[in-house]
Each structure stands twice: as C-alpha cells, then as structure tokens.
Specification:
elongated, 161 residues, 6 helices, mainly alpha
Length: 161
C-alpha cells in the first residue's frame, strides 16, 4: 500500500498522508477518480480500468464469480464412488509422510481422513459432509514450502472435488 500512496503523491493526486491509512484527495485526484468512474472500462492517468474482463478458455465443472456483493452459488456435487473415495484416502495417507505439516495440522489431516474413510464405507455417503471434509483437507496441506507432495495432494483433491 505504501507504494500506491507514494505513486499517488508523486502524481499530485493526494496530499501528504495524515497517517499510514488516512489521506486527502487533491483536486487533481478528485478529477482522476471522477474520470475513472465515468469511464470504468478504460485506464485513466491515475487508475487502471475499474471493470476487468477476464477471458478464460475452456472450463468444465467450474463456477466463476467475481466482483459481486452478497451473491450465492448453488452447485450440485456428484458423490464420489465408494472405491474412488477409498482410493483417495489411501493415496492421501501415503502422501502424509511427505507433507510439511505442523503437529496440529497433522492431527487435523488424520481426523479428516478418518471421516472420509468412514463415509466411504457408509451405504449413504452424505455429499455435504464429504464436501466439508474435502474443504477442510484442502486447507490443511498448504504450507509455505509448497513441496511436491503438497502439490500432489492438491491435485488429488481437485480431481475428487
């Protein structure tokens, strides 16, 4: 944020900040902001376009939402087969020794795998619980190291979800 403030100061769009997060727009700053709001689809002297258009090639089984407030998504998840869920749990267990997990994260990881294992053996696999468990597992292995095992587990999760 500091670089943005310095940039806007050099352009004469803001006055010297009162604090790290409080500043006043100068008259040129107000004009630049008004110009950006009047023409949200193009860049101005001080701001990038306010409207961003993202072109994505071929996407399947994905919902994309950006720049909305209070919106919701409804998705239908196909429940993984018993064999598919069991294979996933087995592979995730094999990867555990190679993941860079804190002790608390390792306990969480094992607990989630046990939940998924129980669901795999259930005659009535509940999609909501499976999704919640996979979401919890998705957050566990992401480490600062970004190890190959972390990436492989995330790839497995992506394939199952």
């Amino acid at each position: 944020m500091h670089q943005a403030i310095v940039y806007l100061q050099r352009k004469g769009m803001i006055k010297t900040p009162l604090t790290a997060n409080l500043f006043f727009l100068s008259h040129p700053g107000v004009q630049a902001l008004e110009d950006a709001l009047d023409h949200p689809d193009r860049a101005t002297a001080g701001f990038p376009p306010l409207v961003s258009i993202v072109q994505i090639g071929h996407v399947e089984n994905s919902q994309i939402q950006q720049g909305t407030t209070g919106s919701t998504h409804t998705a239908t998840m196909q429940v993984p087969s018993k064999d598919g869920l069991q294979r996933f749990v087995e592979e995730a267990r094999r990867l555990q020794a190679h993941l860079d997990l804190t002790p608390d994260a390792a306990v969480e990881y094992i607990a989630v795998l046990r939940t998924l294992e129980a669901l795999a053996s259930s005659p009535n696999r509940k999609p909501t619980i499976i999704t919640t468990s996979l979401d919890a597992l998705w957050e566990v292995p992401v480490s600062a190291s970004g190890s190959a095992a972390d990436q492989l587990l995330l790839t497995l999760l992506t394939g199952l979800m």
